[in-house]
Amino acid sequence: MKVSKNLNFDAAYAELQKILSDLQGEQVSMEQMREKVIKSNELIKFCKDKLRNISDEINASLNHEDADLN
Amino acid sequence: MVALNFQDSIWISCEIASFRESRGHAYLEVIEKPSPDADIIAQASAVIWRTQLNSIYKKLGGEQESALQPGREILVKVKVDFNERYGLKLIIEDMDLSFTIGKLALQRAETIRDLTAKGILLKNKMLPIPNVIQRIAIISSPTAAGLQDFVRQLEDNPYGYAFKSNLFPSAMQGASAAPEVCAQMEEIASRGDFDVIVIIRGGGGKVDLADFDHPNIAIQISKSKIPVLTGIGHDIDESVADLAACRSLKTPTAVSEFIIQRNMEFEAAVLFTYQKIVSSVSQLLQFHVNSMDVIQQNLRWVLENRIRNTAQALNQLSSQIKYISKVGLEKWSTKLSSIQELIAQIAPDSQLKRGFSWTEINGRRVSAQNIPRVRDELTSFTNEFVITSVLTKIAKNESK
Questions:
Q1: What's the whole-number average pLDDT of chain B?
Q2: Residue B94 and residue B117 share a domain
Q3: Which of B330, B340, B378 to mutate to test the interface with A (most CBs of A within 10 A)?
Q4: How many structural domains compose chain B?
Q5: pTM
Q6: In what order do the strands lie in the sheet with B196-200?
Q7: A30 and B365 in contact by Cβ < 8 A?
């Protein structure tokens, strides 16, 4: 299971929440559970990267504006 | 008989009625009047023979033409000659010039008194002389030396002023001087387009000057609407014409100097005014330039202020956005972390590591919804093994 390149943060987060509720449910096998945990780790990594990028972009952009004004 | 009675020469005073020269001799008619306007009470023919005429001319020193002209009163030494054919004749042997001059001075004083009483001497002086004199009517004799000096000096003026002068020729001495000058003044008045009338002639004697004492010239000057400048060329005395003129100067050269000087003064005044205009205009310009600078400074200041304020507001906005986004990102980060933690707890590996096992039947976890029966085949996962077993007994967990 690979993380799609077109995936965005909101979709990834929504999927994470679904995985969590699936995992909390009763009807999953060991194998499915393993796959979902792996998938969730990828999604979490993706989301964290996304957050870090967004933070960097925001900082860079705002710092850039400061440089222009001062 | 008379000759017998007057064998010796005698001095008599009389007035010349006519005078002509012929072959070096002079022939005169002399008369006697009790006053200038009275009738003649005596008349006689007189002659001056060549020898006496020459010595009298020498004595008169160039003033003979003025002294020996009709109207002049003379004191002469005569011998009475009687010829049976030509009758009585006075032979003039000598002449006293000072008598003539004295008579002229008396006449002159009389004329001045009369003209002053009538206000004639002031009339032309009331006229303003133009600031710029360019059109000049000259009354003079074409042959007068003073005329040449006058015209040359005007033409050669160092400032390059242009003059338009017209000569109105007139006799400048003798009995015809007064009527000719008056006639030319009338001619000039009828033309009218002149700035000044200039009456000039070269130097002359005291008796010569008397020609310009004639009241008619002064009266004509007083009638003129154009200012009259005189330069009749006498250093000591002024003629009556001089007294009546707007401005009298000693010589023709003095008149041209006066005219040039007056033009120059006007030009200087114009230049001065021009300089004043130039300097006030440049001052005014400088003032406006300065106020432009001030306005520009103010504009720049207002703009810079505006920019600085806007920049500050943007910076504030920017840091607010930074803060809010940081908070927002942290919230997301926290959410992600808690999901990660939850999943980690749920993850089977961690459960198995802690000693729990996982049991499935037919690929599904054993639960209340998936209850196995005895002899069913179960698959159990532990940390180290996958155990396949057959169910022998199943009971509910009573501790729950």
A1: 87
A2: no
A3: B340
A4: 3
A5: 0.55
A6: B164-169, B135-140, B196-200, B228-231, B247-249
A7: yes
